Amino acid sequence: MPPIEPKRVAALRLELAKQIPKFPNNKASLLALQQKSLGGLLIDYANWAIRFVAPRPRKIIVEASATSDPRWATLQRDIEAFLEKAKRGDELTPHLSLEPHTRGYTPAASAKGPSVNRWADKDMLLNVMGYHHFHPSLTIEPGGFATRTNDVLFALVTREEFTLIAIFDHSVFESEPGQPLNPERERLWRIFDERMMRGVPSGAVVVPPPISTSGHPIQLVYLAQNYARLIARVDPKVDDPLYIASVTVGMPFTLPAKPKWKWQLQYLDLGLMEKASRCFLIFAKGPN
């Protein structure tokens, strides 16, 4: 018999399956996610959630590959205003792609066969290069999103830094198998290769961030596996007052006499949320 899944863990697994936008958005897609183990589901969740950027203050770095672009002169005002938002830690979701809001997971990407499109529910350039892309317009439409622009900003975003890499038009997303790269796509790869090789001694071997055969970055696969192990290790102790006291010692808040905890992911920070006080104990920090 398979082991009985603890209630808190089952609640997290089902909540994550519900949160990920599915296409087609039907019961079959939901069931495909609900039937996965927590570790497997966390891979799908991380693949979707990494497409967003957590709002927190960051140091701004602007690469010469951005300022040397002829478009910098005409877009500078909007870009600098956008970078101020990133510096302050404002919510940047309005400037990101619209796709993650409706296309987070599809069972078709996990099907078997040579003609399967593994990238159907993934941001290929983000997974391969680690670059988010942003629409720099500061005009927010009624739907809550920045006005879509042909020119987009590519940036490398960590928890501490926001590095503006370059400006591209939307042809950078176009690529046909077996066909030559268009100028924007070719420039993107040239910039990526240059940054990967920066500071590397002559003759050294450089290995780009590896991608699994499913199209998921190995970094996110490891993150999902580590999160699943952490939950399995910590969950049996959560109802022990002595354990909770040990992990909350010195923290400036007061818990209820009988706290009720649930596992939660905020962007990709994993922790325990106390339902009444809304205290969030972070056990593992996500990439951004």
What's a concise summary of this model?
The chain contains nine helices and seven strands; from the N terminus they run αααβαααβββαααβββ.
Write up what this structure looks like.
It is a single chain. The model has no long low-confidence stretch (mean pLDDT 95). The radius of gyration is 21 Å and the shape is globular. The chain is 35% helix and 14% strand. β5 (261-266) and β6 form a beta hairpin. The protein has a four-stranded mixed sheet with strand order 1-4-3-2, sandwiched between helices. Strands 5-6-7 form a three-stranded antiparallel sheet. 25% of the residues are buried. It has nine helices and seven strands; from the N terminus they run αααβαααβββαααβββ. It has 288 residues and is an alpha+beta fold. The chain has helices at 7-19, 27-34, 38-49, 64-67, 72-88, 124-129, 183-197, 218-234, 241-248, and strands spanning 59-62, 131-134, 151-157, 161-169, 261-266, 269-274, 280-284.
Indicate the percent of residues in helices: 25-40%
How much β-strand is present in the residues? 5-15%
Q: What is the SS-derived class?
A: alpha+beta
Uncertain residue segments: none
Please state the CA-atom Rg, rounded to the nearest Å.
21 Å
Instruction: Give the number of helices.
Output: 9
What spatial order of strands do you see in the largest sheet?
A: 1-4-3-2
**First and last CA, distance:** 39 Å
Which H/E pattern describes the elements? HHHEHHHEEEHHHEEE
Find the count of extended strands (DSSP E, 2+ residues).
7
Shape: globular
Largest sheet: 4 strands, mixed
Give the overall average pLDDT: 95
